[in-house]
Specification:
Layout: E1 6-11, H1 14-22, E2 31-34, E3 38-41, H2 43-46, H3 56-62, E4 67-69, H4 73-88, E5 94-98, E6 101-105, H5 110-113, H6 116-131, E7 135-140, H7 143-153, E8 158-160, H8 166-171, H9 183-191, H10 197-201, H11 205-212, H12 214-224, E9 240-251, H13 254-274, E10 277-288, E11 293-304, H14 307-324, E12 330-339, E13 342-343, H15 365-384, H16 404-410
Parallel strand pairs: 2-4, 7-8
Antiparallel strand pairs: 1-6, 1-7, 2-3, 5-6, 9-12, 10-11, 10-12, 10-13
This protein binds a DNA duplex through α9, α12, β9, β11 and β12.
Length: 414
DNA sequence: TCTGGGGTCCTAGGACCC
DNA sequence: TCTGGGGTCCTAGGACCC
């Protein structure tokens, strides 16, 4: 029997906990970070049904005395890093999945620090004592089970799933706790009378695949029987990079989308260049007033990272897509994503290669000028800050729906 | 006064090739 | 002449995660 050496650690209601740490008056109170939209909320607020992603108005309806605070985003980054660093004191085998969550495999270090359970207890105590934050930990033989265990442990708890007791632990739990079961899948399963993981496990694989599709059906059957073979991966390379902007309601015209797409292209490509990455596929997403959205994409012959090229391709995709929907007069969101990402070939550090058409071609004056302009701007921003310089057209008017600091938190994973 | 922003993976159909 | 099967890539949409 393999030992249970995988830990999943998850800071509880992270942003809200940090705010309560910084301001004692918020402790024990129903509070949320955000305003227009709830970015995070305290357990006291959750008791009223308030949830992350909910509109501020809806949250206030559910919980009239809810207190809204602006986020201390720099503190989230610092404290999230510090919590992960506590885990790193016990093992280098760490897979961070977000600002407040990570897997660790302690198989190689139990001779130094004691059993996985002992290590989990120590990590929880240290994060509480040194950082002042509650953190829940699950310990199990597989990643999926460790993750489920940490969810069961919340708030501020520890759950160890001992080898041999996995199915006993898993099968009474609701299917919604499984990784990969969201609202849609949960409803489909409920329609079949399946509400627990045990019921799911005892459903024939064939009917599961028929109901949920080949891959999802297969995956859930495996997870329900605790057949999770994934290991803790310390390295991660991005497959795509994107940026989006909610617009409120704006007319579906070029004067709306052109400046927005410039701005988004600038955000995405400067992040790519900062990591010496290039991408081949450019995808745009347009959301209409009724929340339906469409995507259009274009795959280039060669990978790129120049702002103007991404912007021009995106504009053409949006122009063409909107022409297909002449009755849509209003758009509410625009997004750009660059995928097919890879490392920038070394030679591109000297010359821009593989641009889309004649005028962008390496060695031509325009291609070179555009690439040089991007490089110069990236350098200036590194020295003087992001806001110091930009293509004039990318500087958008109007209030921001979400602080830039919040976007930057979400960006870390490239 | 409808619902933020950043990602991953899967599906299904069509084009194209062998 | 008609037919078959497999593989890869691209596109558009959708579910899910933090």
């Amino acid at each position: 029997m393999t030992e249970a050496t995988i830990l999943h650690a998850d800071l509880d209601s992270f942003y809200a906990s940090v705010e309560q740490l910084l301001n004692p008056e918020l402790r024990g109170r129903a509070m949320a970070v955000g305003g227009g939209v709830v970015l995070a909320c305290s357990y006291e607020a959750k008791a009223f049904g308030v949830r992350g992603g909910m509109s501020g108005r809806k949250a206030k309806e559910l919980c009239p005395h809810l207190i809204f605070v602006h986020g201390h985003f720099d503190q989230y980054q610092r404290l999230g890093d510090a919590a992960i660093d506590v885990m790193r004191d016990y093992t280098p085998v760490i897979e961070r999945i977000s600002i407040d969550e990570a897997f660790a495999d302690v198989a190689g270090c139990t001779h130094l620090f004691g059993s996985p359970e002992t290590i989990a207890v120590t990590i929880r105590k240290r994060v509480r004592d040194e950082l002042g934050l509650p953190i829940s930990v699950g310990v199990a033989r597989t990643k999926h089970l460790a993750k489920v265990a940490s969810q069961v442990a919340k708030p501020d708890g520890l759950v160890v799933v001992r080898p041999g007791t996995e199915l006993e632990f898993l099968h009474d739990l609701p299917v919604g706790l499984m990784w990969g079961v969201g609202p849609v899948t949960e409803q489909k399963l409920r329609d079949e009378g399946i509400t627990t993981i045990g019921q799911l496990a005892n459903t024939p694989g064939k009917s599961l695949r028929g109901l949920l599709g080949e891959a999802v059906g297969e995956k859930l059957a495996d997870l329900a029987w605790d057949r999770d073979t994934r290991s803790v991966e310390t390295r991660h390379s991005a497959r795509s990079a994107g940026a989006q902007s909610a617009l409120g309601r704006k007319p579906a015209t070029e004067s709306t989308y052109k400046p927005t797409l410039r701005h988004l292209a600038d955000r995405v490509t400067s992040r790519l260049r900062a990591k010496s990455l290039v991408g081949r596929t450019i995808t745009v997403r347009i959301r209409f007033a009724d929340m339906r959205s469409i995507t259009r994409s274009s795959t280039l012959d060669a990978p790129i990272s120049a702002t103007v090229i991404v912007a021009e391709v995106a504009e053409e995709l949006v122009r063409t897509a909107l022409a297909e929907y002449p009755r849509e007069k209003t758009i509410t969101l625009l997004a750009i994503s660059v995928s097919h990402i890879g490392a920038q070939p070394q030679i591109q550090l000297e010359l821009p290669l593989g641009l889309v058409d004649e005028k962008h071609r390496p060695g031509t004056r325009q291609g070179l000028a555009r690439w040089s302009a991007d490089r110069a701007m990236d350098k200036a921003r590194t020295r003087f800050g992001r806001e110091s310089i930009g293509y004039a057209i990318t500087q958008l008017e109007g209030r921001k729906s979400v602080p830039d600091a919040f976007r930057e938190l979400a960006e870390k994973n490239l």
